[in-house]
Amino acid sequence: MKQVRKGVVLRREDLHVFEVDPALMSRVPQDVTDIEQARIVKNRWEYLDWMHRHFAHKTVLLSEVTAAPSQGPGQAGH
Amino acid sequence: MATLTLPNPVTDKVIAELEAALGKDKVRTDLGARIARTRVPAPFPVHRFAEYMPDVVVLPETAEEVSAILRIANQYRVPVVPRAGGTGLADGAVPLHKGILLDIKKMNKIIELDLINRTVTVQPGLNMLKLNEFLAPYGVFYPDDPASYPVSIIGGRIGTSGWSLIGSRYGHTRDLVISLQVVLPTGEIVRLSDGGGAPKVRKASTGYNLKQLFIGTQGTLGVVTEATLELFPKPEAELAAFFGYESFDEAYRSTGALSTSGLGTLAAVILFDERKVEYLRRDDEAYIPLPERIKAVVATALYGVEEEVRAAANRLFRIAKETGGEYLGDELSAGDWASRHDRYATPLHGRLPDGTVVPMSWHCEDAAIIYSELPAIKQKWHEITDRYIRQYGIFDNWGMFFYSNNPYKGWGDYLVEIDIGIWEQALNEETWQAWVNLKREITRATLEHQGSISACHGACREGDAEFIPVEMHEGGFELMKKIKRLLDPNNILNPSKNYLHLAYVDEEGAP
Ligand SMILES: Cc1cc2nc3c(=O)[nH]c(=O)nc-3n(C[C@H](O)[C@H](O)[C@H](O)COP(=O)(O)OP(=O)(O)OC[C@H]3O[C@@H](n4cnc5c(N)ncnc54)[C@H](O)[C@@H]3O)c2cc1C
Question: CA B422, CA B352: separation in Å to the nearest integer?
Answer without folding.
Answer: 10
